[in-house]
Amino acid sequence: MAPLRNDVSLIDIAAHFAPDLIGRSLSKLWTARGCELETALTDAGCMYTCPLTSSPITSPLLVSDGCIYEEEAALHWFRTREKSDKSVASKPKQALRLGPLAEAVEAFLQHCNAAGYRTSEQLEQAMGEAEMPGTPWLRRVAILEASLAEARTEAEALRHHSEEAQALLESLRRQAAEKQELAARRLQRAVRSRIARERQRAAAALCLQRWWRNFRKSDVKKPKKRRGKAQKKGSAKPAKPSAEELPAQLPASATPTPPEYTQFLNKQHQQYARIEEKDKRAVLDFFLDQLMYDSTDFRILIVTSSDERALGLRKVLQMSKAVQYQLVTMQQDEESKRFKELRECAGIISESQLRHNEDASAANMMVNFDMPQTLEDYMDRIRRVDPAVKVMSLPTSPEEMGVIRQVEEHFGIVFRNMEGVARFKILQNRKALRNKLAATGRSLKSGCAVVAVFLIEIRYGSNCIYDAGRCDTARLDTSEPGIDKYLHAPSPGPVVDKNYRPYIPESYRDYIPTMDESGVQYQKYMQGEPDAEKFQDKVLPQGSYRQNIPLSNGAEKDLSPEMMAEAADEALHDPAPVLLAADTRAPEAAAALLSALHLAIGLRRRTTTRQHGGLSESLIV
Asked: Ranges of Basic residues compositional bias (predicted)?
């Protein structure tokens, strides 16, 4: 900015403000084009200079003295100069814009009215002097003529200034209204143009999406061309989107799919069941149960995400209820053979171990217990197994379902939805099925009876009675397609009773075989006597199944409600081994207890007894 001149000062002339001075200044420096005020040029094409800096004016500013200055120079002068007798107050509010200029004009009109009042007062004073006694007649006439002429002159000046001020005020108000209207039109024009651009963009995206969907379908199967009413013979085909509307890079699903991978996936019978994480174990038990029905030579490969989950799942599989339920319906030798085959052949490995395992191709069923996170990880898993294997995936989140959808879109295949089977959870409904069989006095001799009862409920209703004539297993279609025909129907799922407790006849509640030598101290402990507290660790050792389930005689001691609910759930799904006394013969005690249980619930089942380091345990469902 140019330095300020010292010989220039701003004079406050608000007392004798002249609107024509403002009008001349505006017409000299500014040119009105609509509502936008632009800097005018001289006849020589040069810009007007600022009186403060003698430099060309780029941002004009009208001040209350009627002169126009450079905005930055005037504000700097107001901030730096001190107030003097002939200078205006050092405040930037003296700078006049379009709105404050109208206020200044209104203030001048009020000043004109005050000046008119003063003129009338002077005229009355002169008339009073003329009427004073003793004044000559000629003197009176001269005073009145002079006062009247002065009053006429001031009145004419006031009228002239008032008309100019009124015209300027109307012009300023009209200009302000036009400026507001123009701003509103600009805003409406901007909003409409933006809405139009959004509509065009949405229409282009929809057109591109439709074209891309048809392009993707044409890779799998070309649909038949049909002409509707809107499209007649000879009509022009719709044009493809322009190159600007197409995406810069096509997705991976648009790349041509190798035919060998598609045939490879179709041979594998891809299946999935969308479940929750807490239901994975029950669904896995169901498919293990179904596989034991269908085939005698089963080789299962269960893949997890980490080695820790594989180790934990391997421990759970050893006490699987589906496996134990199958064992109690078989002969002793067949039962031992099946259990041994399951432990040896059901391989549970993690994803990292699968990459280094050469025996994975020998499996006839693969279960993705933990879903892979990407399409490449999924293909890396299934390429290591046989092409004719069944692949079962258990997704639990939308991200894992997205991997399945990517496989379907990339290779053009369709996964078989087994959600109806997963929701059935037949293992959690064994108690209800056994009660229906017990009501008729029949025993569960084969696994097909379970499927038979389920088919009866679907065909004749859930309140029907089991009848050998109506639901003979020989008359039912127990092949895999026939069973899947009914099991694949969606089901709302069973209701799990968290308050369930294993039932033991009242006559057998006082005698519970324990690890205590005499059995007397354990009975005292069950009755709550304090001298038997020292036998707690001996009776209920750490890590035993008996520690986390309700006591068999109905007593509930030193267990929180959360532990009781967890124990009830474990007692419902996981049969706990019965602890036998050291001085009791294991086969006789187990046979006596199981015989009593069979008589109580009306079922006759075979049991198996195994020796583990001197401790005998019987499997109970």
From this structure: 222-235
